[in-house]
Structures are given as C-alpha cells and as structure tokens.
Amino acid sequence: MNEFLENSMKKRKSRQVLIAEYEEWLNKIERMRSEKFQHFITTNKFGYRQNFQHSINLELNNRISIESLEIDKVHTGKFLLCQVINRCVKMNPLFTLIEDPEGNVDRIALYNWVEQSAIPVKDRKKVLSIHEASKFLPIGTKLAIKNPYYQLIPSFDVIISPDGPSLNTHFDPVIRSDNPNEVIVIDHDNELLNNIKWFNNLKMKEKKINVMAADDKQILSADDFRQSGNKYFISNDFAAAVDEYTSGIKLEPHNVTLLANRAEAYLRLNQFGKTLNDVEIALKHEPGHLKAAFRKGKALCGLKRYQEAIIILKDLVSRLLVGNDDSTASIKQSTEILLKHANIWDSESRYGKYDYTKIVDEFCEKIKINQDSGDWICGTGPRLDHADFLSDDIEIRPVKKRGRGLVAKRDIPEGTLLMVSKAFEVVYGNEASLSYVSMDFASKTINTVTHSELAKRIAQKLLVDPDLCQEVYKLYAGPEVENLGGDLLCSVDVRRIEKIIKYNYFELVEHWDIWHTEENKRLTKDLGAGLWILPSYINHSCVDINVDRLVIGDMMFIRTCRPILSGKELILNYCSPVNSYEVRSYALRLHGIKSCSCRLCNLDRSESEKVKLRRANILETYEKSLEPRMQLSFISANYSPPIKELTKLIDELKELRGKHPDLEFHSFELKSDLAEAYVRTGNVLQSLLVFKEIYNFEKTAQLSQFSSDAAYKIASHYVRLNQMKEAKEWWDVVLKELAGSIRGKFNEGETKWRKEALYLAKKLSPKMFSDAKNIGLL
C-alpha cells in the first residue's frame, strides 16, 4: 500500500470524534444548495471490491467487530452486526454511521443497495435531502453486513468538494458493501439478537409504508394491486408497478389483465425475457388479447428475434384489418410502425444492410443538448435504434499469448463490414460530472467520472436483470479475478464489473466537427466511455492494424481497413501511435496491458539511450522554443515562423528512424506546424507538398481519423493556387474519406456517391462543408 495511505491509518479515530465529524458533515450538506452538490451524484468507485462468497451463516462465531476490521481487506466468510445511529446521506452509495454491539463506531457506504426505482423519477438526478435518504435506514435499524470490505476513501469533506480527490488528499476508512444481497436488515425479534448486549440499544423508528395495517382487517384484492400498480406505472416507477402487479398475480395467476400490465412494465425496464413469459401466459388464456400480442412482438424485437417478431406482428396487423374498429386504431398504427422497424432490424442483423443516411440523421438529431440544463433534448441522447450485426467471416478463438480474439475464417477484402455492435452501456460526458474523478488504488491511477458512472450503471442494469450477467462476465477481467461458475454467474459482482471495464472499455472519440458546435460544447472535454461486448474481443496493436472502429451514437461499426487472410487475427489500436511510448504505455496499463509487442513498441524499447536522449532534446526544443514562436507568428505579423529550425528538427527526427520511416510518428505535429508556417510566409506550394507528405504517411499508417483533414488542406491549397481542377479532385478524396469511414468504400462506377457523400459531410462536418462552399469547392 502507498505510504500516504498508510499514514492515513496510523490511528483510529475515537467514537466521539467520528460522531462529531459525521454530524458536522451532515450540517455542511444541509447548508449547501443542492445544485452545488450535483458533482458527486454520478461518482461511484473508490478502489476495488474483492470477490465474495454467498453462503455465510449468520452465526455468532462468524461475527466480526469493527475493531477487528483490517484496512484494504474483504473479510470473507464474516459478517458485521451493527445498528444505524445517525441519519443517512444518499449520493451514489447510501452513507450513514453505524455502531456494533461493543460500541465501536464507523461510517458505512452501501453501493447499489437502494434501487433507482425507490427514488421518484423526477428526483433521480437530484440529491435527496437527508430527511428523505434517512427513510431508507431509520436510526435503530439493525444490519448484518456479509463479507464487509474495509476501505480507504477520500475524507468526507473531499467527497463534497467540487475539486474531488487528489494524491495529497486525506483519507479515512469506511465499511463498504457493493452487493445488496449481502446487506441484511435484521428484525428486532430475530433469534440472532437474543444473546447480544448492545452498548447503546436503539429502537428503530417505524417506517411509513403504503400497505394496509394488519388490524384494519382488510384483505387486498387482485384488482386493488392492479390499481396500485397502475398508479406507479403512470408515475414512471415501473419497478414498483411490477411489484404491485406481481402481488395481484399471486392471488390470481391467470389474470390476463395483470399479466399484460406487468409485461408492459417489464418492457419499460428492458426486461424482454420476463415480458415474453407474461404475454405467452396471457395469450394462452386469451388468444385474442391484442395488447398482449403487440407486447410479444416488442419483446421478441428486444430479444433480437426479429423474424419471430415479424410473424407475430404480421398476424396482428391482419387481425386488426379485419376488425377495422376505431377503438383499435391506435394499436393498429403502433403495430404497423413496429413491423416496419422489425423488418429493418431483421435486414440489418442478417445482412448488415444499414441506411447510413438515416442513421446519421438520427444521430445528429439526438446529440443536441439543452444548454440551460445540460440534458439531452431527446431524452435518451444519441442512443440509436438499430440492430447488431456479426459477419459469418469471423469467429472467437483462442489466440497464442493473447487469450481470446476474433479471427478470420476466410479471406476478407478491405472495406468489409464485419460487425455492428450496440453498446451494452455507454456514458456520455454530459451525463456525469465534468470535474470529478475517482481513485483506483489498486492500479494507482485516476479514473474519469465517466468510468465510475459506467460501472455504476452496469451494476444497476445487472441488478435489474441478472440474466445479463453471463454476457458481461464472459469478458476478460484480469488474471487476479477467477472464473465464476454456477449461481455466481448470475450474481452482481461489482469488483468484476470494474475490472471488466478496465480491460475492455472504449473511449468515445471525436470523428467530426459536429462535436464542436455551440450546442455540443459540453461534450468536448470528456466525450464519454462505453462497454461493447463483441468488439472487446478484438486485441490491440499500436501499428499494423487491419480493422477500424467507428462509433456513431452508441453503435460501433467494425470494418476492415486492409485485406485479412484466413486464420489471421483482427487487430485494432486502443491508443494512437502518434503518442509517445510513455503515453501509450500508460494508456495501455489502464487496459491492463503491461507490455505491447507491436513493431513500434519493440523499436521504442530497442533504441539506445543515446538515441532516446537526442530525440527527447529535439522534442524539448520544439515544445519550449519553436512551438511558442509558432503561436506568436499566428497572432502577430512581427514574428516570423521558425521554418528553418522546424525543418532541421524534422530531418533529425527522420534520421533517428532512418530504417523505419513508416514508424516515425514523433515529427507528425512538427510537420503540421511546418506546413502552416509556409502558409504564413506565403509559400503555399511548399505547404502543399508538406501536407501531401502528411496525407501519404497517414494513409500508410492507417490514421484514418486524420486523413480527411489532410486531404481538405490539400484541396484548399490548390484553391489558393487557383488550380480548381486539382482542388476538386482532392475535394472528392475528402468526401470519399469522410463518407467511406461511415458506409464503406464506394463501388467503382457508382454514379450517386457524391450526393450521399455531400449529405454526410454537411451533417457531420458542417464547418468544413461551409468553408468548402465559401472557397468554391461546391
């Protein structure tokens, strides 16, 4: 453990100090306006939870006291018996102060314990008041915490600070539990408490609950539960609605109305398997139930069983046409719309046939942000409504020294669409704080808040639908996390989720200048991150990649960028080769890759210290001397750009990699500055030659994210030279580069390619499109 963490634990705080500090913290929170407190709501993780076992008997010989807890350890097989002695604060975890029977006091953080459905919809992005949060665990509540994890987190004052933690932060211990199944509320008449003497025995304040008192002698009917469920449904509290409908179904298992209603609530929670089960039972007892049939079609679409859905929906449309009743007009219209979408999704999933123009339209519409609130104008944001696709040309196989990977089953041409994958979960920059970060003490790294929010959302998603655990848990979670089997495959293991994200996440990347429009400026600092299941099986190499990835909204498109021979592994890069070896190594460590064995990394490691020192001196000269002079030349005519010095440094960098010109990435930025320097001096022709060199290097190095920009620079330079024929030829290159990255290469002889490419350029790169129009390229 780091020394600064050890210093934080030299002396435990006394009971009196902990109670006083917690009370002071509560008072500070109550004085703060809720909008100043928003930064913490989406933060989640401080360190990593160890694996847990689920079969712990609540017997006194398995009990552990607070005093016996060891820092940074999961006390597997033990449980902590405690009682709540103060009010609660609901941030991402539920914080409160607890006391064990011996009178030891400490703070506890219960993650994922309070489900989202327990919080009113309108308040789910807000800070609950201390009064509201304390209703979850009233003072006096007795708890048994299985497998308690004693962990250091930033002090509570840091938690409510907008600046978040740093390496100089003071840390305090907290008892942490990630799994709601390991937090047991103990009834006061439980036999476990019979022989326990409490230092301070508190009586729990009675919770207010929305059920009839036992002495009312009133028995609730199935219809009572239906009405109660409908009220929750109308308020968008779908999980609570499910609970009410379920209570009614227990009384009347074949009540078609309750089954159909619960199916709709399950649909809203994206629990399609449970939806399908309910509607099939309903249709068995009432085959003509139109809404149940419609919901069956929706459930089958959600389960990606599109052909089955089409059969159900076509039959439903036929029945609705025969009836032609005004009362069924709404469901008829909805069915026809869903059938149309199901046919599209079926074509996408089976053949990889996508209407890229419509996809881009949908993306551009959904990416708009309300500048006052920072929320999406479209509620779901840029999460697109399209199907996954997986080519038959590839399969997952064991790969030597790489674990598992995706491998070509046959020869695959360049430009082939191999996969389209919808994110299992994605978090965009505006959906989480832009200033808060969390610490990962295990790897000694700082994670952005989007990674913390991503872990939280995946955990909550698995809590709602544990059947999804197996899909996520198949992904690599590191050598220290053992494989799960049996019932554990359906348990929510937050530590495993965090590790899976660590090794498999993808950051969202700026592909087009639409990200830089005024409406989307809140996204540009941290676009976000997501987990895509199948693309996670593609392994990394800094160079010599053979597939490109492109993310539109939450859809990832994987396409070959060069021919792939049968038996060869699919390779993409997790970080840009333009970055230095040190920057790439750090980025790869975040993915759990200790050492990359690509040509570029091997060359970086093999170079002599003399070569490394010379390169470092060259780059330092550029950063400290030439780059500032370049900036001055842009803002004042009194400063001349350092063309000779730049040229000399570029030549020296090239010489250091003389035998490997295709791996000379260090001069990439310098060349761009040199090209701009020539423009400043009026030497457009020389600048054009430099940009052509840059473009050719980008194509060779598979830097597709840069090549369309370089091509546009070349086109605009030809305009300056009044060579419009060449300018428009290069403008065509720009259009093909930009559109090709989305929809693949245009076929030879296609006559309408330019119209489609122009449309895509206008939508995704409006600034470049406008500039091109102004200089006569359109």
From TrEMBL:
<protein>
    <recommendedName>
        <fullName>SET domain-containing protein</fullName>
    </recommendedName>
</protein>
<dbReference type="Pfam" id="PF00856">
    <property type="entry name" value="SET"/>
</dbReference>
<feature type="domain" description="SET">
    <location>
        <begin position="392"/>
        <end position="575"/>
    </location>
</feature>
<dbReference type="InterPro" id="IPR046341">
    <property type="entry name" value="SET_dom_sf"/>
</dbReference>
<feature type="repeat" description="TPR">
    <location>
        <begin position="222"/>
        <end position="255"/>
    </location>
</feature>
<dbReference type="InterPro" id="IPR053209">
    <property type="entry name" value="Gramillin-biosynth_MTr"/>
</dbReference>
<dbReference type="InterPro" id="IPR001214">
    <property type="entry name" value="SET_dom"/>
</dbReference>
<dbReference type="InterPro" id="IPR011990">
    <property type="entry name" value="TPR-like_helical_dom_sf"/>
</dbReference>
<keyword id="KW-0802">TPR repeat</keyword>
<dbReference type="InterPro" id="IPR019734">
    <property type="entry name" value="TPR_rpt"/>
</dbReference>
